[in-house]
Design a protein that fits this description.
The complex is a heterodimer.
Chain A (H helix, E strand, L loop, with lengths): L1 E2 L2 E2 L1 E4 L2 E4 L9 E4 L2 H8 L4 H8 L9 E8 L6 E8 L4 E2 L11 E10 L1 H4 L2 H11 L15 H10 L1 H6 L5 H5 L17 H7 L12 E10 L2 H7 L5 E8 L2 H22 L11 E2 L3 H36 L3 H4 L2 E7 L1 E10 L2 E10 L2 E2 L18 E4 L7 E6 L1 H6 L3 E2 L9 H8 L4 H7 L3 E4 L2 H6 L8 H10 L3 E14 L1
Parallel strand pairs in A: 5-6, 20-21
Antiparallel strand pairs in A: 1-2, 3-4, 4-5, 6-7, 7-15, 8-12, 9-11, 9-13, 10-11, 10-21, 14-15, 16-19, 17-18, 18-21
Helix pairs in contact in A: 4-11, 5-11, 8-10, 10-11
Chain B lengths: L2 E5 L5 E7 L2 H17 L8 E9 L2 H17 L3 E14 L2 E12 L13 E2 L7 E3 L2 E9 L1
Antiparallel strand pairs in B: 1-2, 2-8, 3-5, 4-5, 6-8, 7-8
The chains are: A alpha+beta, B alpha+beta.
């Protein structure tokens, strides 16, 4: 098949390859189906972006894309690229503006019936206690720049030290909620200014906090290990590093662009701008990115604890009865230094995951001991009207995708089109009829984020399940949503 | 002043911006930024701020200038109403814009924020001289 002039051949039903050509250092590989290729990939430029990423110096094996791939800046959203840590490059565009945008799943011991009568009140109280929307602020007292630097260094530990959650929460967070290579000194004053009053805030756009019910279990053994059961009430949080992270990305795109002439890379797209990992610019970016990632983990930790408190108060339950625990927190916009087997040899690489989730297999030392027999939880949010998924990482992910899988569905309609489609309709009532109680800052956000604006995440999850990269564990159905 | 219009972009917000000359293009882009952020919320010219920004090309200058406007909004809580005076200069390889912008501080009772612009991107950015004047596409990460 040919799309946008690129030959694309099936390896199997769910994996397609773009052969090496021109300046590509490796082939491109896209996890997708024929249906999705023809329906979505023909419509945007993301295939060209997979090809462009294959030009990065030091890229290993393949320029990869997960299903749900769509047009990003430089990298496609859903792109994965591993670069040699000695000779390769780091690209801020391979992480994106919202550094450590991610998902957190917490479980309760409750079944849906226990909250059904108080759902409206619960959603209302969550909306009141957790700041949402553009420039939202004030979840916790405004912090000084000095304190923000501590958050950048400590990540979720800062939240726990300040009474938001427990030390066990750290164990169930990717990197324990703290990347040790964080370098707060590499974060600009401007970025810190953008973060001063944003710790613990949800933000806007597609970010959300959801109350879900476990609707179907696909893998009872793994679900049990994750503490999930049918009919259970769980909480899903999608948020990132807010203005601080956007500014870090912006700052380093500029710094690295200015430095790029030094390194003499010729790349097909300015937004792929990159620096050698071992260069000062590369190391500074990695340190600043890790600091922004820590800021995001701290945010989700605070948001989760504010939600836990709200559950307790609204439902008038003891800790024991609520039985609230973090299942896992995983990021989907990040670059990580990891060891992977390449051509039969262990190699240290920098894995860029832009709109891709880490999916480590059973036995990995990087995942909590409690999950070591089954593998790492993978959290894949859908739209607010249909469902989200819990999956689990596999050995095949290590062999094929540098331990990565999909992160979500992606839009199918622009915001403009979604708004038009929602005109004259009572969308809150429509969602209510579908069993979802929603509170949002603006009616417009609801229209922009309606289920019809998104691809069906089940298709995306199914492709990775069929490809054997991440296996389905459970499907969650939203019943209460708060948004910006 | 020049003109801007929204383009259809699946994931983010894109504008087509045109101006009579580069200065006009930059001033129109500020109006476009404000429309995306606040839509029709009225913004009055109650005070002034001066901006002085540099870049290695007109494109980089535009990104840096609008990023400054965006930063001033998110951190300084200040919204531009209109560009009162603007000048672009080129010195060797460096471009510089100096602008005097009228506007006011953000007031939640007066202004409604519609879209958070995370960043101004280089995506599809290419300033060219056309029959309509100087034009470019402008993509905001939202």
């Amino acid at each position: 098949m040919k799309i946008h002039g690129y030959e694309i051949n099936p390896i199997h039903d769910y994996l397609w390859e773009i052969p090496r050509q021109g300046g590509m250092r490796v082939p491109g590989r896209i996890y997708t189906s024929r249906k999705m290729l023809e329906k979505f990939l023909a419509e945007d430029e993301s295939i060209r972006q997979v090809v462009n990423v294959a030009h990065l110096p030091g890229i290993q094996k393949y320029s990869l894309a997960m299903p749900g791939i769509h047009w990003g800046y430089g990298f496609p959203i859903g792109g994965v690229a591993a670069t040699d840590v000695e000779e390769g490059v780091i690209s801020p565009g391979g992480v994106g503006y919202d550094i450590n945008c991610g998902i957190r799943l917490a479980r309760t011991g409750l079944e849906y019936q226990a909250i059904a009568g108080k759902l409206e009140k619960l959603v209302q109280n969550l909306f009141q206690n957790i700041p949402t929307g553009v420039g939202s602020s004030g979840a916790i007292q405004k912090q000084s720049a000095k304190e923000i630097r501590k958050i950048l260094e400590k990540g979720s530990e800062w939240a726990v030290e300040h009474g938001f959650g427990t030390p066990e929460d750290l164990e169930f967070t990717e990197e324990n909620g703290r990347m040790s290579q964080a370098n707060p000194e590499a974060v600009s004053k401007r970025a810190i200014e953008r973060g001063l009053d944003q710790a613990g805030t949800l933000g806007s756009g597609n970010h959300f906090l959801e109350i879900d019910v476990v609707e179907e279990i696909f893998d009872p053994r793994v679900a049990e290990a994750f503490g999930l059961f049918p009919g259970q009430v769980v909480l899903l949080i999608h948020s990132g590093s807010r203005g601080l992270g956007y500014q870090v990305c912006d700052d380093y795109l500029k710094i690295i662009m200015q430095a790029s002439h030094k390194y003499g890379f010729t790349l097909p797209d300015r937004q792929l701008t990159c620096a050698p990992i071992q260069s000062k610019e590369g190391q500074d970016y990695l340190g600043a990115m890790a600091a922004a990632a820590n800021f995001a983990w701290n945010n989700r930790q605070i948001i989760m604890d504010l939600a836990r408190r709200t559950f307790k108060q609204t439902l008038n339950l003891s800790d024991r009865d609520l039985d609230f625990r973090l299942v896992y927190d995983v990021c989907h916009n990040i670059a990580k230094i990891e060891e992977h087997e390449i051509d039969g040899r262990k190699k240290t690489v920098c894995v860029h995951r832009k709109g891709a989730t880490r999916a480590f297999p059973p036995g990995s030392e990087k995942i909590p001991a409690a999950y070591r027999e089954v593998g790492q939880p993978v959290l894949i949010p859908g739209d607010m009207g249909r469902y989200s998924f819990v999956a689990v990482g596999t050995e095949k992910a290590m062999q094929e995708t540098f331990g990565s899988t999909c992160h979500g569905a992606g839009r199918v309609q622009s915001r403009k089109k979604a708004l038009k489609a929602g005109k004259g309709r009572d969308l809150i009532a429509e969602l209510h009829k579908a069993g979802v109680v929603i509170q949002a800052k603006g009616k417009r956000t609801i229209a922009e984020e309606m289920p019809y604006a998104y691809k069906d995440v089940a298709d995306v999850v199914e492709i990775m399940h069929q490809a054997g990269v991440s296996r389905k564990v459970a499907r969650l159905r939203p019943v209460g949503v708060i948004k910006g | 002043m020049g003109e801007y219009r929204l383009l259809d972009h699946t994931a983010d917000v894109a504008l087509r911006v045109c101006g009579e000359n580069l200065e006009d293009l930059f001033a129109t882009a500020v109006a476009g930024w404000r429309y995306v952020t606040l839509e029709e919320s009225p913004v009055d010219d109650l005070g002034e701020k001066n901006f002085q920004v540099r870049g290695a090309s007109p494109e980089e200058l535009l990104v840096n200038f609008l990023s400054e406007i965006n930063f001033t909004f998110h951190v300084g809580k200040w919204v531009p109403a209109r560009v009162l005076e603007i000048q672009l200069q080129q010195e060797g390889a460096l471009w510089e814009v100096t602008a005097r912008v009228g506007g006011e501080y953000f007031r939640p009772d007066k202004h409604e924020i519609f879209t958070e612009i995370k960043a101004v991107t280089f995506h599809q950015l290419n300033i060219e001289k056309t029959a309509e004047g100087y034009c470019t596409n402008l993509v905001f990460d939202t």
